[in-house]
Design goal:
alpha/beta, Immunoglobulin-like, Aminopeptidase, 7-stranded mixed β-sheet, 10 helices, 29% helix, binds zinc ion
């Protein structure tokens, strides 16, 4: 009974804090786990060579240019305008014509503190189901909205053309995993369509292994730039960027690829961030060079390089197809509970919380809570799962289900991180920032 009264007081104090503070998370990095894996098993990382070759063949200039020309017809495709609405309808019809299961997600969202308006839009989703009961999902997305006064040919007509071409080509084959093709609007207003969608799939517990993002992939104005390609990925999926580098050589694209690790806690320039902020792995593709026409009336088809767009799209689609059949030797780890964006009381999920104005997800835990971790991988190959509080190890679990009962005396914002280790020495991690109000003195 005593505990209950304490909890009630803490609840009132918490509400006071939620209303009055905009406290930021304590970020402590853990720097002692390995990023790179040198034990790539090349036999299982590469799929059917003839299948991939055929896919590469089917992606061609006229296919991509056709989609691009159609999209630019609706420009400018600013979110909330007739042009954007028409572009969405066009994409929907294209997916339906391909015979793929297609769905529209209507969304409504307040922009953000820099763009304080209300927006409405549609996310178009086409699902190519796996040929078996595998529930793992791969996402490939781009955004069909543009800024005002811009044709939005490269930004991001190029990415949408690649997504449509991927759907058209890949729907002629069968794969071991499900792929969802997504075209979002609201990107230019603050990643609104993708934020809405990623929240939905996260709360629905969909098993998304990777999100592939294509935004501005068709501009190269010199011969030197035609050889450049940028691929950014979150840390746990960096091993697959190694695989893409190998596909790049194996299938004679020979791009000079520059890479970067996408940080999951810093806001990003494209829709991938909507996924990575929930802890999903993301790989983002960009042209190698800065496009000075971006967000201007000069972002038109004449200023694009269609052979370059085609070559990049071929490698992107080959990389996605390869992943769809891949025998994965790397673990994926997600903190299953507490969930980002929820309030917990006495270990139970109480309610969904509204996003903060600064756009950060917030999670509040009152009293102690169980930290549950889900691992996607061959469960027998998992050696241990470690749990950290502000960068300090608290608990190691070696048996499924993986869980740490977080019963420390704790107030304010703290980061909980988990690292999974498999028997091949691969690691993966996930984290969550939690506003704690736990008055109990535990271990
Ligand atoms: Zn863009």
């Amino acid at each position: 009974m005593k505990i209950k009264i304490i909890n009630l007081i803490i609840l009132i104090v918490t509400c006071f804090f939620i209303i009055n503070t905009n406290s930021t998370a304590t970020i402590i990095k853990i720097d002692n786990f390995s990023i790179h894996d040198n034990n790539l098993n090349f036999f299982s990382l590469y799929q059917d060579i003839s299948k991939i070759s055929e896919i590469i063949q089917l992606v061609n200039e006229s296919l991509l240019l056709g989609y691009l020309e159609d999209l630019v017809e609706f420009s400018p495709r600013t979110t909330g305008t007739f042009g954007c609405e028409k572009a969405g309808e066009y994409i929907y019809e294209k997916f339906v014509d391909m015979g793929i299961e297609t769905k529209i997600y209507n969304w409504e969202s307040f922009g953000n503190k820099y763009n304080p308006r209300f927006f409405r839009g549609k996310s178009i989703e086409a699902t190519l189901k796996s040929n078996n009961k595998n529930e793992e999902i791969i996402i490939f997305n781009a955004h069909y909205d543009s800024v005002k006064r811009s044709p939005g040919a490269d930004d991001d007509g190029s990415g949408v053309a690649a997504v449509l071409a991927a759907a058209f080509v890949l729907s002629k084959f069968e794969f071991n995993r499900t792929i969802k093709f997504l075209c979002f609007s609201g990107e230019e207003e603050g990643l609104l369509g993708s934020k809405n969608y990623s929240k939905y799939v996260y709360e629905n517990d969909d098993t998304i292994l990777v999100e592939f993002n294509a935004d501005m992939i068709g501009y190269a104005d010199t011969e030197e730039d035609e050889n450049k390609f940028r691929i950014y990925g979150t840390q746990d999926i960096d091993w697959y960027v190694d695989v893409i580098e190998n596909l790049n050589i194996q299938y004679d694209f020979n791009f000079d690829i520059s890479r970067r690790i996408l940080s999951e806690d810093s806001s990003g320039g494209s829709d991938y961030y909507s996924f990575s902020r929930y802890g999903y792995e993301a790989i983002a593709f960009f042209e190698g060079q800065w496009n000075q026409n971006m967000h201007t009336k000069n972002d038109n088809i004449e200023n694009m390089n269609i052979p370059y767009l085609t070559k990049i799209s071929k490698l992107i689609i080959a990389s996605i197809a390869n992943f769809l059949d891949l025998e994965i030797n790397h673990p994926f780890v997600y903190i299953e509970s507490p969930k980002k964006g929820f309030l917990y009381f006495e270990g139970r999920e109480i309610k969904k919380l509204k996003d903060k104005k600064d756009d950060q997800l917030r999670t509040i835990v009152i009293d102690e809570v169980g930290i549950w971790v889900d691992v996607f991988s061959d469960i027998n190959s998992i050696e241990k799962v470690e749990f950290y509080y502000n960068g300090r190890i608290q608990y190691t679990d070696t048996d499924y289900p993986y869980k740490w009962q977080m019963n420390k005396l704790s107030f304010f914002n703290h980061r909980i991180e988990t690292i999974v280790y498999d028997s091949k020495g691969n690691t993966a991690s996930d984290w969550i920032d939690i506003l704690f109000f736990n008055p109990r003195i535990g271990n």
